[in-house]
Design goal:
Strands 1-2-3-4-5-6-7-8 form an eight-stranded parallel beta barrel, surrounded by six helices. It contains eleven helices and eight strands. With 250 residues, it is of the alpha/beta class. The chain has a single domain, classed as Aldolase class I (TIM Barrel). Bound molecules: phosphoenolpyruvate.
């Protein structure tokens, strides 16, 4: 019922030539499959070129962030409408590097969700607990609190524009990953909270897992009932490993 989605978050990596070559390779790898979706998040500066490469393919394009404001005097910022102009369909909101390194708050991220939805684009909201929060038994409370803060005000049409990525902060870029059982438990809790907010959307919403996903662990994680895909950092930067992840994402 839910089509698996494999998303590559390139972060602040790759120059234009490398990004173009990788986008072409991903386009070719994804072309072999009709039963799974693929999405790439290059840097802002590469969106236009990657959009041209992906045109006519079923690989979607997203931006890694957007401004919390619509437009105006916000030097260095990029708006959701400018991202839409660049042909991106998704915007990643609340990645842990933005929450924890750049100190973006729940209230600020809620504003960004609103900007994305105003443009009719898809939000991929990242949620996840730190190691200290997990060890103190607060993981579910923290994750559902992040979800509530960003999404609890949405109406039915807006919910159709949401995907969620559960990314435990301690697993991102560390080589550690949640066990499939821990990932399933959190995904089930997330889907349960979505059901309480919008019962119709809960069985349809895609909830991705992220945190050191690699070809050797994706199958066990994706085998879990509430895991609908993966948001991948490091392993999305090499054409071969990302092709393997697409192949294994059933
Ligand atoms: C990410 O950046 O969202 C991520 C999950 O990174 P990695 O796969 O490298 O842990």
């Amino acid at each position: 019922m839910r089509t698996p989605l494999i998303a590559g978050n390139w972060k602040m990596n790759l120059n234009l030539a490398d990004a173009s070559a990788l986008a072409k390779a991903v386009k070719d790898s994804a072309a072999a499959y009709n039963d799974r979706d693929v999405l790439l998040y290059p840097t802002f500066l590469q969106l236009t070129q990657v959009a041209a490469i992906l045109a006519g393919s079923k690989v979607s394009l997203g931006a890694q962030n957007c401004s919390a404001e619509k437009d105006g005097a916000f030097t260095g910022e990029i708006s959701a409408s400018q991202i839409k102009d660049a042909q991106a369909g998704y915007i990643l909101i609340g990645h842990s590097e933005r929450r924890h390194v750049l100190k973006e708050t729940d209230a600020f991220l809620k504003q960004k969700v609103e900007r994305v939805l105003e443009q009719g684009l898809m939000v991929m909201l990242c949620v996840g607990e730190t190691l200290a929060e997990r060890e103190s038994g607060k993981a579910v409370e923290v994750v559902l609190g992040q979800l509530n803060a960003a999404l609890s005000h949405l109406n039915g049409d807006e919910w159709r524009k949401i995907a969620i990525a559960y990314e435990p902060v301690w697993a991102i870029g560390t080589g550690k990953n949640a066990t499939p059982e821990d990932a399933q438990a959190m995904h089930e809790a997330i889907r349960g909270r979505v059901a309480a907010l919008n019962a119709d959307i809960a069985p349809k919403i895609r909830i991705l897992y992220g945190g050191s996903v690699k070809p050797d662990n994706i199958a066990a994680i994706m085998a879990k009932a509430d895991v609908d895909g993966a948001l991948v950092g490091g392993a999305s930067l090499k054409a071969e490993s990302f092709a393997e992840l697409i192949r294994l994402a059933k």
